Amino acid sequence: MGRYLSAIIGHVLKYYDKSIYGFLIPFLAPLFFPHNDPVYSLLAAYALLPLGILAKPLGAYVFGKWGDRWGRKFCLFITLLGMGCTTGAIGFLPTFEEAGWIGPTLLTCGRLLQNFFAAGESSGGALFLLEHTEKKKRGLMSSLFDASGILGIFLAAFAATLLGGAHWRWLFWFGGLASLAGLFIRRSSEETFPPPQEQRKWEKRDCAAFFAVAAVSGFSYANYYLLSTFLNGFLPLVSKVSLQEALALNTLLLGVDLLLLPLFGWLSLRIEKEKFIFTALFLGALLAVPLFFLLEGADLWIAGSVRITFTVIGVCLAAPYHAWAMETAPAGRRFMVCAMGAALGDRLIGASIPALGLWLYHETGWIASPALLLIASAVLASGALYHLKYQTTGQTKPTETT
Protein backbone atom coordinates (compact mmCIF):
# COMPACT_ATOMS: atom_id res chain seq x y z
CA MET A 1 0.00 0.00 0.00
CA GLY A 2 2.86 2.40 0.79
CA ARG A 3 4.40 1.79 -2.62
CA TYR A 4 1.04 2.36 -4.33
CA LEU A 5 0.33 5.61 -2.43
CA SER A 6 3.84 6.90 -3.10
CA ALA A 7 3.55 6.31 -6.85
CA ILE A 8 0.00 7.64 -7.14
CA ILE A 9 0.45 10.81 -5.07
CA GLY A 10 3.69 11.66 -6.82
CA HIS A 11 2.00 11.22 -10.20
CA VAL A 12 -0.93 13.46 -9.21
CA LEU A 13 1.39 16.25 -8.06
CA LYS A 14 3.67 15.87 -11.08
CA TYR A 15 0.81 16.36 -13.52
CA TYR A 16 -0.59 19.29 -11.57
CA ASP A 17 2.80 21.01 -11.68
CA LYS A 18 3.25 20.16 -15.34
CA SER A 19 -0.26 21.12 -16.49
CA ILE A 20 -0.91 24.35 -14.64
CA TYR A 21 1.28 26.38 -17.02
CA GLY A 22 -0.55 25.03 -20.07
CA PHE A 23 -3.96 25.89 -18.64
CA LEU A 24 -2.82 29.39 -17.68
CA ILE A 25 -1.24 30.20 -21.07
CA PRO A 26 -4.20 32.35 -22.23
CA PHE A 27 -3.73 34.46 -19.07
CA LEU A 28 0.09 34.40 -18.96
CA ALA A 29 0.68 35.17 -22.66
CA PRO A 30 -0.19 38.91 -22.46
CA LEU A 31 1.67 39.25 -19.13
CA PHE A 32 5.00 37.75 -20.22
CA PHE A 33 4.81 38.12 -24.03
CA PRO A 34 2.73 41.24 -24.80
CA HIS A 35 2.03 41.93 -28.51
CA ASN A 36 -0.53 43.85 -30.57
CA ASP A 37 -1.60 40.59 -32.23
CA PRO A 38 -2.89 38.15 -29.54
CA VAL A 39 -2.01 35.19 -31.79
CA TYR A 40 1.69 36.08 -31.55
CA SER A 41 1.44 36.34 -27.75
CA LEU A 42 -0.08 32.86 -27.66
CA LEU A 43 2.57 31.54 -30.05
CA ALA A 44 5.37 32.81 -27.80
CA ALA A 45 3.77 31.28 -24.70
CA TYR A 46 3.09 27.97 -26.45
CA ALA A 47 6.69 27.91 -27.70
CA LEU A 48 7.86 27.29 -24.11
CA LEU A 49 6.13 23.89 -24.12
CA PRO A 50 8.61 22.16 -26.48
CA LEU A 51 11.63 24.04 -25.05
CA GLY A 52 12.38 21.01 -22.90
CA ILE A 53 13.60 19.23 -26.03
CA LEU A 54 17.03 19.15 -24.37
CA ALA A 55 16.14 19.39 -20.68
CA LYS A 56 13.69 16.49 -20.56
CA PRO A 57 15.84 13.96 -22.47
CA LEU A 58 18.79 15.01 -20.30
CA GLY A 59 16.72 14.47 -17.16
CA ALA A 60 15.48 11.14 -18.51
CA TYR A 61 19.04 10.02 -19.16
CA VAL A 62 20.27 11.10 -15.71
CA PHE A 63 17.37 9.63 -13.74
CA GLY A 64 17.14 6.58 -16.01
CA LYS A 65 20.79 5.81 -15.33
CA TRP A 66 20.41 6.38 -11.60
CA GLY A 67 17.13 4.44 -11.43
CA ASP A 68 18.61 1.35 -13.09
CA ARG A 69 21.71 1.54 -10.88
CA TRP A 70 20.59 2.84 -7.46
CA GLY A 71 16.86 2.22 -7.31
CA ARG A 72 13.51 3.81 -8.12
CA LYS A 73 12.79 5.38 -4.73
CA PHE A 74 15.99 7.46 -4.67
CA CYS A 75 15.26 8.98 -8.09
CA LEU A 76 11.59 9.61 -7.38
CA PHE A 77 12.45 11.55 -4.22
CA ILE A 78 14.79 13.83 -6.19
CA THR A 79 12.31 14.37 -9.04
CA LEU A 80 9.43 15.37 -6.76
CA LEU A 81 11.65 17.71 -4.74
CA GLY A 82 12.90 19.42 -7.90
CA MET A 83 9.42 19.73 -9.41
CA GLY A 84 8.00 21.25 -6.24
CA CYS A 85 10.73 23.84 -5.76
CA THR A 86 10.65 24.92 -9.42
CA THR A 87 6.86 25.22 -9.59
CA GLY A 88 6.71 27.29 -6.41
CA ALA A 89 9.47 29.59 -7.68
CA ILE A 90 7.55 30.37 -10.90
CA GLY A 91 4.86 31.95 -8.73
CA PHE A 92 7.34 34.65 -7.67
CA LEU A 93 8.44 35.69 -11.18
CA PRO A 94 8.04 39.31 -12.36
CA THR A 95 6.00 39.98 -15.51
CA PHE A 96 7.27 41.76 -18.65
CA GLU A 97 5.75 45.04 -17.45
CA GLU A 98 7.55 44.75 -14.09
CA ALA A 99 11.02 43.64 -15.24
CA GLY A 100 11.16 43.61 -19.04
CA TRP A 101 12.73 40.53 -20.61
CA ILE A 102 13.98 39.28 -17.23
CA GLY A 103 10.50 37.89 -16.51
CA PRO A 104 10.14 35.82 -19.71
CA THR A 105 13.77 34.66 -19.40
CA LEU A 106 13.24 33.39 -15.85
CA LEU A 107 9.97 31.76 -16.91
CA THR A 108 11.85 29.94 -19.66
CA CYS A 109 14.46 28.73 -17.15
CA GLY A 110 11.71 27.55 -14.81
CA ARG A 111 10.06 25.55 -17.58
CA LEU A 112 13.40 23.96 -18.49
CA LEU A 113 13.95 22.84 -14.89
CA GLN A 114 10.40 21.50 -14.65
CA ASN A 115 11.02 19.37 -17.72
CA PHE A 116 14.35 18.12 -16.36
CA PHE A 117 12.86 16.85 -13.10
CA ALA A 118 9.59 15.64 -14.64
CA ALA A 119 11.50 13.34 -17.00
CA GLY A 120 11.95 10.61 -14.41
CA GLU A 121 8.68 10.90 -12.49
CA SER A 122 6.06 9.20 -14.70
CA SER A 123 8.18 6.30 -15.97
CA GLY A 124 9.88 5.83 -12.62
CA GLY A 125 6.59 5.92 -10.73
CA ALA A 126 5.02 3.41 -13.11
CA LEU A 127 7.96 1.02 -12.74
CA PHE A 128 7.92 1.49 -8.96
CA LEU A 129 4.30 0.34 -8.99
CA LEU A 130 4.17 -2.26 -11.79
CA GLU A 131 7.42 -4.21 -11.41
CA HIS A 132 5.97 -6.06 -8.43
CA THR A 133 2.41 -6.29 -9.71
CA GLU A 134 1.15 -9.63 -10.99
CA LYS A 135 1.44 -9.68 -14.79
CA LYS A 136 -2.24 -10.34 -15.47
CA LYS A 137 -3.21 -7.29 -13.36
CA ARG A 138 -0.71 -4.85 -14.87
CA GLY A 139 -3.11 -3.46 -17.47
CA LEU A 140 -5.60 -2.44 -14.78
CA MET A 141 -2.92 -1.03 -12.47
CA SER A 142 -1.40 0.84 -15.41
CA SER A 143 -4.76 2.50 -16.09
CA LEU A 144 -5.21 3.43 -12.42
CA PHE A 145 -1.72 4.94 -12.36
CA ASP A 146 -2.51 6.95 -15.48
CA ALA A 147 -5.84 8.00 -13.97
CA SER A 148 -3.93 9.55 -11.08
CA GLY A 149 -2.14 11.73 -13.62
CA ILE A 150 -5.52 12.76 -15.06
CA LEU A 151 -6.56 13.67 -11.53
CA GLY A 152 -3.58 16.02 -11.34
CA ILE A 153 -4.58 17.57 -14.67
CA PHE A 154 -8.18 17.79 -13.44
CA LEU A 155 -7.07 19.68 -10.35
CA ALA A 156 -4.96 22.05 -12.45
CA ALA A 157 -7.83 22.70 -14.89
CA PHE A 158 -10.31 23.24 -12.06
CA ALA A 159 -7.93 25.61 -10.28
CA ALA A 160 -7.24 27.55 -13.50
CA THR A 161 -10.98 27.91 -14.11
CA LEU A 162 -11.59 29.26 -10.60
CA LEU A 163 -8.46 31.34 -10.01
CA GLY A 164 -6.98 31.94 -13.47
CA GLY A 165 -6.20 35.58 -14.15
CA ALA A 166 -5.27 37.87 -11.28
CA HIS A 167 -4.60 34.98 -8.88
CA TRP A 168 -2.36 32.92 -11.17
CA ARG A 169 0.57 33.07 -8.71
CA TRP A 170 -1.41 31.23 -6.04
CA LEU A 171 -1.75 28.21 -8.32
CA PHE A 172 2.03 27.82 -8.69
CA TRP A 173 2.59 28.29 -4.96
CA PHE A 174 0.02 25.61 -4.17
CA GLY A 175 1.75 23.17 -6.54
CA GLY A 176 5.10 23.78 -4.91
CA LEU A 177 3.82 23.32 -1.35
CA ALA A 178 1.80 20.21 -2.23
CA SER A 179 4.82 18.58 -3.89
CA LEU A 180 7.00 19.22 -0.86
CA ALA A 181 4.30 17.74 1.40
CA GLY A 182 4.25 14.64 -0.83
CA LEU A 183 7.92 14.03 -0.05
CA PHE A 184 7.03 12.88 3.46
CA ILE A 185 4.80 10.13 2.06
CA ARG A 186 7.44 9.10 -0.47
CA ARG A 187 10.14 8.84 2.21
CA SER A 188 8.11 6.23 4.11
CA SER A 189 7.58 3.93 1.11
CA GLU A 190 9.55 0.72 0.68
CA GLU A 191 12.11 0.33 -2.10
CA THR A 192 11.21 -2.50 -4.48
CA PHE A 193 14.15 -2.18 -6.86
CA PRO A 194 14.85 -5.53 -8.55
CA PRO A 195 18.40 -6.92 -8.52
CA PRO A 196 20.57 -5.03 -11.06
CA GLN A 197 20.86 -6.80 -14.40
CA GLU A 198 24.20 -7.32 -16.06
CA GLN A 199 24.58 -4.60 -18.69
CA ARG A 200 24.97 -5.87 -22.25
CA LYS A 201 25.34 -4.17 -25.58
CA TRP A 202 22.27 -2.71 -27.22
CA GLU A 203 20.74 -5.33 -29.51
CA LYS A 204 18.40 -4.87 -32.44
CA ARG A 205 15.31 -5.53 -30.36
CA ASP A 206 16.43 -3.09 -27.65
CA CYS A 207 16.66 -0.30 -30.22
CA ALA A 208 13.30 -1.26 -31.72
CA ALA A 209 11.72 -1.24 -28.25
CA PHE A 210 13.16 2.20 -27.51
CA PHE A 211 11.88 3.62 -30.81
CA ALA A 212 8.43 2.07 -30.25
CA VAL A 213 8.13 3.51 -26.74
CA ALA A 214 9.16 6.95 -28.03
CA ALA A 215 6.74 6.90 -30.99
CA VAL A 216 3.74 5.54 -29.08
CA SER A 217 4.24 7.98 -26.20
CA GLY A 218 4.65 10.72 -28.82
CA PHE A 219 1.15 10.08 -30.18
CA SER A 220 -0.25 9.90 -26.65
CA TYR A 221 1.34 13.24 -25.76
CA ALA A 222 0.24 14.78 -29.06
CA ASN A 223 -3.37 13.90 -28.27
CA TYR A 224 -2.92 15.14 -24.69
CA TYR A 225 -1.49 18.54 -25.69
CA LEU A 226 -4.17 18.87 -28.35
CA LEU A 227 -6.91 18.41 -25.75
CA SER A 228 -5.49 20.08 -22.66
CA THR A 229 -3.59 23.01 -24.16
CA PHE A 230 -4.09 23.68 -27.87
CA LEU A 231 -7.90 23.66 -28.01
CA ASN A 232 -8.20 26.08 -25.07
CA GLY A 233 -6.69 28.86 -27.18
CA PHE A 234 -7.87 27.56 -30.58
CA LEU A 235 -11.60 27.24 -29.89
CA PRO A 236 -12.19 30.96 -29.18
CA LEU A 237 -10.52 31.75 -32.53
CA VAL A 238 -12.64 29.45 -34.73
CA SER A 239 -15.86 28.69 -32.84
CA LYS A 240 -18.55 30.29 -30.69
CA VAL A 241 -16.92 28.89 -27.53
CA SER A 242 -15.34 31.49 -25.21
CA LEU A 243 -12.09 31.01 -23.31
CA GLN A 244 -13.88 30.49 -20.00
CA GLU A 245 -16.25 27.96 -21.61
CA ALA A 246 -13.29 26.13 -23.15
CA LEU A 247 -11.57 25.88 -19.76
CA ALA A 248 -14.77 24.73 -18.04
CA LEU A 249 -15.37 22.14 -20.79
CA ASN A 250 -11.80 20.94 -20.38
CA THR A 251 -12.37 20.35 -16.67
CA LEU A 252 -15.57 18.38 -17.36
CA LEU A 253 -13.93 16.21 -20.02
CA LEU A 254 -11.02 15.40 -17.75
CA GLY A 255 -13.59 13.95 -15.36
CA VAL A 256 -14.85 11.74 -18.19
CA ASP A 257 -11.24 10.73 -18.88
CA LEU A 258 -10.75 9.86 -15.23
CA LEU A 259 -13.80 7.58 -15.25
CA LEU A 260 -12.98 5.88 -18.56
CA LEU A 261 -9.38 4.92 -17.74
CA PRO A 262 -10.22 2.18 -15.19
CA LEU A 263 -12.85 0.77 -17.58
CA PHE A 264 -10.36 0.53 -20.45
CA GLY A 265 -7.76 -0.84 -18.02
CA TRP A 266 -10.19 -3.59 -17.05
CA LEU A 267 -10.82 -4.36 -20.73
CA SER A 268 -7.07 -4.56 -21.34
CA LEU A 269 -6.99 -7.57 -18.99
CA ARG A 270 -9.01 -9.44 -21.61
CA ILE A 271 -7.71 -7.92 -24.85
CA GLU A 272 -4.09 -7.80 -25.99
CA LYS A 273 -2.44 -4.48 -25.10
CA GLU A 274 -1.05 -3.97 -28.62
CA LYS A 275 -4.56 -4.24 -30.09
CA PHE A 276 -5.72 -1.39 -27.87
CA ILE A 277 -2.81 0.76 -28.99
CA PHE A 278 -3.24 -0.01 -32.70
CA THR A 279 -6.96 0.80 -32.41
CA ALA A 280 -6.22 4.22 -30.90
CA LEU A 281 -3.67 5.02 -33.61
CA PHE A 282 -6.05 4.00 -36.40
CA LEU A 283 -8.95 6.05 -35.02
CA GLY A 284 -6.72 9.07 -34.44
CA ALA A 285 -5.50 9.06 -38.04
CA LEU A 286 -8.96 8.39 -39.48
CA LEU A 287 -11.00 10.94 -37.52
CA ALA A 288 -8.62 13.87 -36.93
CA VAL A 289 -9.48 15.91 -40.05
CA PRO A 290 -13.29 15.41 -39.91
CA LEU A 291 -13.32 16.34 -36.22
CA PHE A 292 -11.42 19.58 -36.85
CA PHE A 293 -13.85 20.53 -39.64
CA LEU A 294 -16.68 20.31 -37.10
CA LEU A 295 -15.05 22.99 -34.94
CA GLU A 296 -15.61 25.86 -37.39
CA GLY A 297 -18.37 28.03 -35.91
CA ALA A 298 -19.21 25.24 -33.47
CA ASP A 299 -21.31 25.79 -30.37
CA LEU A 300 -20.45 24.33 -26.98
CA TRP A 301 -22.23 21.02 -27.66
CA ILE A 302 -20.44 20.29 -30.93
CA ALA A 303 -17.07 21.35 -29.52
CA GLY A 304 -17.71 19.12 -26.51
CA SER A 305 -18.55 16.14 -28.72
CA VAL A 306 -15.33 16.61 -30.69
CA ARG A 307 -13.27 16.74 -27.52
CA ILE A 308 -15.02 13.66 -26.09
CA THR A 309 -14.06 11.73 -29.22
CA PHE A 310 -10.41 12.74 -28.88
CA THR A 311 -10.61 11.81 -25.18
CA VAL A 312 -11.82 8.26 -25.95
CA ILE A 313 -9.00 7.83 -28.48
CA GLY A 314 -6.45 8.97 -25.90
CA VAL A 315 -7.82 6.70 -23.16
CA CYS A 316 -7.75 3.68 -25.47
CA LEU A 317 -3.99 4.09 -25.78
CA ALA A 318 -3.17 5.43 -22.33
CA ALA A 319 -4.86 2.71 -20.27
CA PRO A 320 -2.41 -0.13 -21.12
CA TYR A 321 0.56 2.09 -22.04
CA HIS A 322 2.71 1.84 -18.89
CA ALA A 323 2.25 -1.94 -18.61
CA TRP A 324 3.04 -2.35 -22.31
CA ALA A 325 6.14 -0.13 -22.09
CA MET A 326 7.44 -1.96 -19.01
CA GLU A 327 7.03 -5.36 -20.66
CA THR A 328 8.55 -4.09 -23.91
CA ALA A 329 11.72 -2.56 -22.41
CA PRO A 330 14.76 -4.77 -21.63
CA ALA A 331 14.94 -5.44 -17.88
CA GLY A 332 18.52 -4.29 -17.35
CA ARG A 333 17.85 -0.80 -18.73
CA ARG A 334 14.10 -0.59 -18.21
CA PHE A 335 14.09 2.79 -16.45
CA MET A 336 16.34 4.26 -19.14
CA VAL A 337 14.26 3.00 -22.09
CA CYS A 338 10.90 3.99 -20.57
CA ALA A 339 12.06 7.41 -19.36
CA MET A 340 14.11 8.35 -22.44
CA GLY A 341 11.47 7.02 -24.83
CA ALA A 342 8.69 8.98 -23.12
CA ALA A 343 10.85 12.11 -22.93
CA LEU A 344 11.68 12.10 -26.63
CA GLY A 345 8.08 11.34 -27.57
CA ASP A 346 6.87 14.17 -25.37
CA ARG A 347 9.39 16.80 -26.46
CA LEU A 348 9.91 15.97 -30.14
CA ILE A 349 6.30 15.11 -30.98
CA GLY A 350 3.73 15.98 -28.32
CA ALA A 351 4.87 19.34 -26.98
CA SER A 352 5.33 20.79 -30.46
CA ILE A 353 1.64 20.32 -31.32
CA PRO A 354 0.25 23.61 -29.84
CA ALA A 355 2.84 25.93 -31.42
CA LEU A 356 3.08 24.08 -34.76
CA GLY A 357 -0.68 23.61 -34.98
CA LEU A 358 -1.37 27.29 -34.35
CA TRP A 359 1.35 28.27 -36.83
CA LEU A 360 -0.10 25.99 -39.52
CA TYR A 361 -3.55 27.48 -39.02
CA HIS A 362 -2.18 31.04 -39.04
CA GLU A 363 -0.24 30.46 -42.26
CA THR A 364 -2.78 28.39 -44.21
CA GLY A 365 -6.11 29.52 -42.79
CA TRP A 366 -7.26 25.87 -43.10
CA ILE A 367 -9.03 24.87 -39.91
CA ALA A 368 -8.04 21.18 -40.19
CA SER A 369 -4.32 21.84 -40.72
CA PRO A 370 -3.41 21.04 -37.06
CA ALA A 371 -4.95 17.58 -37.55
CA LEU A 372 -2.16 16.69 -39.98
CA LEU A 373 0.29 16.68 -37.07
CA LEU A 374 -1.78 14.12 -35.16
CA ILE A 375 -2.07 11.95 -38.28
CA ALA A 376 1.70 12.05 -38.81
CA SER A 377 2.35 10.97 -35.21
CA ALA A 378 -0.14 8.09 -35.58
CA VAL A 379 1.57 6.85 -38.75
CA LEU A 380 4.99 7.05 -37.08
CA ALA A 381 3.83 5.10 -34.02
CA SER A 382 2.15 2.43 -36.16
CA GLY A 383 5.35 1.94 -38.14
CA ALA A 384 7.39 1.65 -34.95
CA LEU A 385 5.03 -0.97 -33.52
CA TYR A 386 5.09 -2.93 -36.78
CA HIS A 387 8.90 -2.88 -36.75
CA LEU A 388 9.02 -4.03 -33.14
CA LYS A 389 6.54 -6.85 -33.66
CA TYR A 390 7.58 -8.21 -37.05
CA GLN A 391 11.13 -7.11 -37.80
CA THR A 392 12.77 -8.40 -34.60
CA THR A 393 11.05 -11.79 -34.31
CA GLY A 394 13.33 -14.38 -32.78
CA GLN A 395 15.45 -11.94 -30.78
CA THR A 396 15.78 -12.35 -27.03
CA LYS A 397 12.87 -10.68 -25.26
CA PRO A 398 13.25 -8.63 -22.07
CA THR A 399 13.41 -10.60 -18.86
CA GLU A 400 10.13 -10.60 -16.92
CA THR A 401 9.86 -9.60 -13.28
CA THR A 402 6.85 -10.66 -11.29
Structure, briefly:
The protein is mainly α.
Describe what this molecule looks like in 3D.
α1 packs parallel to α4 and α4 packs antiparallel against α9. The protein is 77% helix and 0% strand. The C terminus is likely disordered. The protein has a single domain, classed as MFS general substrate transporter like domains (Growth Hormone, Chain: A), CATH 1.20.1250. With 402 residues, it is mainly alpha-helical.
List keywords for this structure.
single chain; 402 residues; mainly alpha; Growth Hormone, Chain: A; 16 helices; 0% strand; globular; disordered C terminus
Task: Note the topology.
Layout: H1 2-32, H2 38-46, H3 55-70, H4 72-90, H5 96-99, H6 102-118, H7 121-130, H8 138-163, H9 168-187, H10 204-238, H11 243-267, H12 273-293, H13 300-328, H14 334-350, H15 353-364, H16 371-390
Percent in helix: over 70%
CATH class: Mainly Alpha
How would a textbook summarize the main sheet? none
Number of strands: 0
- Gyration radius (Cα, Å) is 20 Å
Total domain count: 1
Assess the beta-strand content as a share of residues: under 5%
Q: Report the mean per-residue pLDDT as an integer.
A: 85
CATH architecture: Up-down Bundle
